Amino acid sequence: MDTMMFNTRDNLTVYNGENHLYFHFNEENPVCEVRVYPYRNDLFSRLRLVKSNDYTVLDSMVNINDEYFRFKIRFRNLYNTDFLNFTFAVSNSDSSEFSMEVIPLLPVTTTTVEFIPLNNELFIGEEKVFPLITDNIRNVWIDNIWTTDKLIDYRLTEEGGKMYLHLISRNYGFQMLELQIKTKRPFLTEFGTLSYDLPVIREEFMVRRSRLRFLNIDREYIIHDPQNLSGYEIQIQSNPSFNPGRTYRIENQEEPGGALIAELFVKSHIDNGRMLCILRPYSLHRINQGYLYIKENDQSLFITNLDIIPKPQIKNIQLLREGEDWTTNLSVHPGETVELRMEGESLQKASFEFEGVTNITLDTLIHNEFLATYVLNIPIDIYSRTIPIYNHGEKTGFELKVQEYQRPREFDYITIEGNGFKRQVNTIGNTILTPQVVQYLTVKFDNNKIDSEGELYGQQHLNITVTLRGRNNELLEIKEFEDIVVCPGPFSPRDGFYRGNCSSNVINVNNYLNKKTYDIESWSKITVEITNDKNIYGGVGFKETVEIIYEKYWRFDIEVSFPAGLVTYGSESAGNLTGISMAMIAQFSFYQKNRINRLQPFKVGAGFLALDAFNFSDNDDNRDLAIVILGSLYPTRKDKKLTFPLYFGGGYKLNAEEFFFLIGPGIRISL
């Protein structure tokens, strides 16, 4: 298809009293690129396209440098889609509410039909069939209904992808045919207006009195079934030339030696001006193949016409569901809508029924001798595992298989629970920090959240991996739970149809671990990874990872450090500077809030301080042993092995028997 561009500035037309954006199309399912230009800059973050069954989105809507949105779609069945539009949801900047903006669309296309008869001769009361030439039969309105008020009545039919014109006249002489053909989709006239009426085709015919009288049969068609040897009872117009108890040949030509199409056995005359007969067909015949001649001893007596068609039968069935391609896989799911395309013979005369399905729509626009299309709404509570297809109450040998849905659902039905926390898996945005020892850890499944009246997902197949790691990220234990099957609960419309190896609704993790969750130290990590079994879902599915960390607010330890260059202030002396001292302090460390295993840069403790401990001269007046309360400031970088903390505090010197204050640096070595 040639590239064409249409916009709301140059290509608007009024249709049904409303402005529509019209666009030309040449294919039934064209692919189009759409550009949307918001009239305000603040709409770029608040605009989205609403899903529609009239088209499939191939490329999602993308913001192009805050200039316009671009997306790509494939329209579906433009010849038969009504009320086509683009609907956009625009959010209110002050709330979460949405307003809807609708752009009505009007597909238009050109169609031509030509009528070139090779013979302009008709006979009164006789139906004659001519082919019509068209470049777009899918857009021609073919209703298969006779006109009743014309000089020459007509009807349009389709067969094998070709269009035929049926003519019949009841007046002789020169008669004018005025053929008015309508289209499904409009076209733009030279004046820029919309029209569904193609130019009138006029053709003059010479209508003659028939050489042989045409007799009407009370049936339009007869099924040719080789197994039916008794024939079909029919009524035909009465005529004195027919003798009850006689058998007449029906051939396909007026001259002797024609092919035997059927035999007509006359049983009796009846009061309504007709005769009761038995028709035994031996060959197939179509009305558009010409007249049938009723003969006695090779002498043509009358002409008639009807379809003798093969027994309706299905040769192939294909199935289409939204967003997918036609497939010969005849599996359907409860509650879904599918399109069924049957290929075979004489399908226009068939009456198909689908066991257990009552909501059935026949697409009359795609229904002919060789093709029939149905739209089926599979009941959500359908009771059978198969849907046999019947024709006039007889099994055709074809059936649809009912399979339960097996689609991965978002993990909103899974909950992780321990003492002190309970979270829905799909809403956990960050790591779970718990100040309590994890006495128990369970994975729970809410079965009633999986299925609902509006949407079915079926059994959920999961794999769960639980990993324990120590405070230094060393692996402690790993446990895998495979082939977990979570079945929808009693609230599901299909609850009674789920059978098999359904797993328990609760998994108590500690029952399967050697090292229990309550045995791990602070800042150890419990990781729970939940995934859909991709072998079941064809490589797709969801994955969520939950991290649970046992945190502490403080830590108690005993530390030996070496303060150096302390400045002490006592009651008897002031400003003394010590050498290297040694401290043994029982102290508290504090962890930073919302950070994992990261200490605050200060500590508080109490203990003993040996002042000037490494000065061994006899006259050192600063050497003493003190009971102290110390605070210390440490650098926060963890990659430093050698650090120099700052100490401050006070205490009591045991030898000098005095209280003092101190401040000064120290040396700390991390191994």
Quick tags:
671 residues; Immunoglobulin-like; 6 domains; 7-stranded mixed β-sheet; 6-stranded antiparallel beta barrel
Summarize the structure.
The chain has one helix and 52 strands.
Q: Mean of the pLDDT scores?
A: 85
Any idea of the CATH class of the largest domain? Mainly Beta
Characterize the main sheet: 7 strands, mixed
CATH topology of the largest domain: Immunoglobulin-like
Give the termini separation: 75 Å
Which class of secondary structure composition applies to the elements? mainly beta
Strand order of the largest sheet: 18-25-24-21-22-23-20
Proportion of strand residues: over 45%
Q: Could you please describe the fold and organization of this structure?
A:
1% of the residues lie in helices and 51% in strands. By secondary structure, the chain is mainly beta. It has six domains: 12-108, Immunoglobulins (Immunoglobulin-like, Sandwich), CATH 2.60.40.10; 113-208, Immunoglobulin-like, CATH 2.60.40; 213-310, Immunoglobulin-like (Sandwich); 319-402, Immunoglobulin-like; 411-550, Immunoglobulin-like (Sandwich), CATH 2.60.40; 554-669, no CATH class. The strands form twelve sheets. A seven-stranded mixed beta sheet has the order 18-25-24-21-22-23-20, with no helix packed on it. The two termini are 75 Å apart. The model has no long low-confidence stretch (mean pLDDT 85).
